[in-house]
Amino acid sequence: MYRGTARKGAGVEVRIMAGIGPGGEGIQKALRWLSERRQEDPQAKRNKLIEEAGVRFDLTPAEVQFLYEQWK
To answer: Where is 37: in which H helix or E strand?
Structure first.
């Protein structure tokens, strides 16, 4: 069962599955926001976007780490 799906880049998806990754509302909103930012500015720095998402959506360190590992 999928808890959420967020598009990233050129149609590639990150899927958050129950028990595999964080699936809270904050991480789901962060993934949507990151996808939107990347579409608006494909040259945006990945690290900067992830750090901003962490602050904007009050993510835990584990959730931010998940973004670094899974959102390309």
So the answer is: helix 25-40
| Segments forming the whole domain that contains residue 34 | 2-70
Q: How far apart are CA 60 and CA 53, in angstroms?
A: 11
Q: Based on the structure, what is the number of domains in the chain? A: 1
Identify the CA nearest to 34 among candidates 19, 20, 21, 53.
53
For residue 41, what pLDDT band results from cuts at 50, 70 and 90?
very high
pLDDT band at 24 (very low <50, low <70, confident <90, very high): confident
Average pLDDT rounded to a whole number, residues 7-32:
62
| Closest to 18 measured CA to CA, from 1, 33, 43, 41 | 1
Calculate ∠ Cα 28-37-10, nearest 5°. Answer: 85
The single-letter DSSP state of residue 22 is -
